[in-house]
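Reading a protein record of the kind used here takes only a little practice. An example makes this concrete, so a full record is given next.
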Amino acid sequence: MTSTEALIETLNTTDKSIFHGDEISRMKAARAARKLAQRLEAPWERMYTEIINKSSELVSVKTCTDVKLWSCLSSTPQTSAHLAEKTGMDQGLLRRMLRVLVTMDFVEEADVDTYVETEMSKELRDPDGMILGLDMYYSLSLKMTQLLPEYFKRHGYRIPEDISQAPFKWAMGMPEYKDGFWAMIDEIGLSPKFNGFLSGLRRGQPSWAALWPVEEKLLEGWDGKSVLLVDIGGGKGRDICNLAEVIHENHANARLVLQDRPSVLEEARASGLHPQIETMPHDFFKPNPVHGARAYFEHSVVHDWPDKEAREILTQIKNSMQSGYSKLLLMERVMPESAKEVDPNLASIDLHMAFNFCAQERTEVQWRALLQSVGLKYVGYQPVFGKTYILEAELP
C-alpha cells in the first residue's frame, strides 16, 4: 500500500469514537476535516457541492421524511424495492434519492441497492425532534434564501438597527407586521416545531452542568434557602434538568425555577420535567419575580436581540440580583475575532440572528461591553463545549 493509499484508508476509517468523549477535540477535528475537503476540491467541484448538491439533498431528505422512510430503515438490509413498497414511493425515484442519502451518510448501502440505518437516520425517526428543522426551512428559511439578496439590494446592503424592521418580515411578505419573529411563528403555528427542533439539536449536546464547575461556581456560597437557579427563557427545560440531575443526590431541596412563555411551559411539562423544577410564566422584558436567587441563567436568549433590547433584558435581571451573592450566567456562543477561527455553523447562525432579529453573535469584547453597559461586572467566560461558553457577571 502506498503512502497515499494509506492516508485515504485512514481517512475512510476515522470516526468520532477515537475521541473518547472529548467534544472539544472532536469538533476541532471535524472543522479540520471540512477544511481539508475544501482544499482538495477544485473550484468547479466546490460550486457543484454548494449550489447543485445541497438543493438535491434537501429535496431528498424532505421527500423521504414525508413518506416516513426513516422509520422503515433498520439494521437489517433492505432493497429499494422493499422500501418502496413500505413507503409508497416509486422504486425508481426512491433509489435515486437513496443514492443522495448515501452520499450524505444519512443511509448506508450494505450491498448494491441494499440499505441499512445510520446514526443519523435513527435520529430522524423522532417526528418531534431535529427533523422539525425541515419544516422551519421550507416555511421560513427557503423564502429568505430566495428573497433576502433583493432585500439588501433595495435597502442599501445593511442590517437595520431597529428590530421592528427585521429583514425576515420583508422576506415573508409582511413588512408592516408589528410584532417580532417569535410572535410571528406563534401565529402561523410554527412555534412548537421550532421548540422541538431546538430540543432535538440540544439533546445530542453534552450536559453543561456536567462540564461546568457547578460545585465551585454555584453551590459554594449558596445560603441553602434562596432559589439556586432561575432558567430564564429556558424552553422545554433541558438545561435546568441537566442541573437537577447533577445536584439532586446531595441537594434535593434546592429550588430550581424554569421561566418562559405559558405555551412553552405547557410543552415543557408535557414532555416531562425533573420533579425538582418549578415552572413560572415570565416575560423577560419585565421585572423578574424571583429576587435574590443564587444564579440567573439564560441559554441563547440575549443573542436573539440587538444591543438596545439586550440591555433591557439584562437590566431586569440585574434589578433582581443581590449584591455580593447573585450571579448572572449566560450560556452563549462567543464569536472569535479572527474569521479563520470561526466555525461555519457559528458564521451561519450569526447571519440568521441578523435576518430575524437585527442581532448578532458577539465576540468576548462585545459581551464584556454589553454587560458593563448595564452596570454589571464582567467576571469572565469558560468553555463548555465547542464555541459555547458560560459568561459570568455579577453586581459590582
